[in-house]
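Methods — Computational structure assignment.
A single polypeptide chain was analysed. Its primary sequence is given first, followed by the predicted tertiary structure written as structure tokens.
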Amino acid sequence: MTRFLARRLLLALLVVFLVTVVTFVILHLLPGGPARGVLGVKATPEQIEAFNRSQGFDQPLPVQYWDYCSGCCTATSAPRTRSTPTSARCWPSDCRKPWS
């Protein structure tokens, strides 16, 4: 029974690792990188450079992957969305309905 549980745990960890690697690679394969995906096609090169610097995309890939995984494991947003407000930080007076 212990061997079965150990094997299942090991396979689950492998699946989590592979899913994080695949999502990280897909994010970096976006045309223009993650900055272009977040800022849009009208972003200037200066805005893209500032975004990459502020979100850590100017770091080496292993450092970016570590930040990505640590952000996922701590139940926070991925590091690239640190500047976007979350519902936890949104007061009712600041949260307007999109149709109003």
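Note: The longest helix spans residues 2-28.
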